[in-house]
Amino acid sequence: MILQQQEEVDVFLADATKKIANFDDHVYDLAAFDIIRSRDRGIPLYNVVRQYSGFPKAQSFVDISNKTIIQENLAKVYPNGIETVEAWVGVMSEDHLDGSNFGMVMNASMVTQYTYLRDSDKFWYEKPEMFTSDERLIIRNTTLRDIIIRNIYNSVNFPQNLWSIQPKMTLNSSEDNSYPTRIGSWSQYIVRYRIDLTYVYFKVELQTSDGNGWFGMGFDPDDEGMKGAEFIIGIVTNGNVTLGNYHADVDGYHPPIRDAIQDLTLVPKFSMSDTKAVTVEFKRLLHPPGKKPITDGDMKYILAYNPNSNAFSYHQNNRFLYRVNFYNSEIGSASSTDHQRFVRLIHGCGMFITWW
């Protein structure tokens, strides 16, 4: 299952769900059961649920989906119009939000439900009486992958990322004397740099699936996560790259926030190959006004990326924390391998929950 790509979350169902055998030797259609159950229990129609979730009523099938085939099928199933669409069918037919498996009504429902579950759980790990701050940090940075590996015999070939299929292609990258120092050991994301008295110059290579993705680098976090860090984030859209300055929120477990004042020297020079590999060159001041300086000493340095989507969302396991001296090119893990993996993965749990 860890290597199997999931089916899309939409109104088109796998054939296996239409022929589920039960203990009484009858065969059932799971979607039909869900629709019947919603009728039996008086679940409101789609537009009622949509309004309850804080969104305006859909005026036509176009407001549910931009896909013509979905609009046409909804019109056939509900000939009396948009007001008769049932909730389950409607939410499963919605166009997805960027970077999400869900449309807007389903996403709002999931956020509400999991928020209620969290807030009503007296044993929730973030409650101050449950754990110390160090213990909460460990929990936040434990991922599902960590938990699985603890409970299996051989994890040698276990993939690093459980949550997305990585691009099949890897970077065809070679050494570059103009950027002599390399950071990162991924096959899809490589950072190189050089330094002078004023700037550090970066060359980033990112292997995307289809010309869309994002990459980020974070400077000097206060902990093993993102707290207190400043970021440069690149958004790749159809091979075009935009760069921006960002900073972490107070807790460091929500998406970085774009700075109100941007560094005007942060201008990317970029290109994309036939294999959808993007190369980006840019520079950062060593001592930018109002931002963290890069000095002759060790600095915690975060690298993260998403090769599949330019929606700025959770990076999953595509993250690593280094300790770098940009002046003498000394590069190492910010902590021991086991602890680094442990903290990185718990950091993932916290971000997976809060990035909805």
Write the layout of secondary structure elements.
Blueprint: E1 20-21, E2 27-28, H1 30-40, H2 46-52, H3 68-77, H4 87-93, H5 104-119, H6 133-140, H7 144-150, E3 181-183, E4 189-195, E5 199-207, E6 213-219, E7 230-237, E8 240-247, E9 257-258, E10 269-272, E11 277-285, E12 299-306, E13 319-325, E14 330-333, H8 337-354
Antiparallel strand pairs: 1-2, 3-4, 4-5, 5-11, 6-7, 6-12, 7-8, 8-9, 10-11, 12-13, 13-14
Helix pairs in contact: 2-4, 6-8
CATH architecture of the largest domain: Sandwich
Write the H/E string, N to C.
EEHHHHHHHEEEEEEEEEEEEH
- The DSSP helix count reads 8
Net shape: globular
Report how far the terminal alpha carbons are from each other: 24 Å
Strand content: 15-25%
Name the CATH superfamily classification of the largest domain. Cellobiose dehydrogenase, cytochrome domain
Q: Approximately how much helix is present in the residues?
A: 10-25%
Cα gyration radius (Å): 24 Å
CATH topology of the largest domain: Immunoglobulin-like
